[in-house]
Design a protein that fits this description.
By secondary structure, this protein is mainly α. It has a domain of about 30 residues. Helix content is about 35%, strand content about 0%. It is built from three helices and no strands. About 5% of the residues are buried.
């Protein structure tokens, strides 16, 4: 039985933009967490493995 999890970023933003911003924070470095996969690299600059995530990057990726 698969255990699929889907996070609805747009719903989190509607609740509070600060919530998503806090979820992206890396408490160790004081920066944002980084992309941990190469899967998003075709989207362009800022989506490579190791690049910091930003709220706008996530919402730019959400299909209409």
């Amino acid at each position: 039985m698969p255990n699929d999890i889907d996070i609805h970023e747009n719903h989190i933003l509607q609740l509070s933009g600060e919530v998503l911003e806090r979820l992206l924070a890396d408490r160790t470095t004081g920066r944002h967490i980084t992309w941990a996969t190469h899967d998003y690299e075709p989207l362009g600059d800022g989506y490579a493995y190791g690049d910091e995530t930003h709220t706008q990057d996530i919402f730019d990726y959400i299909p209409p």
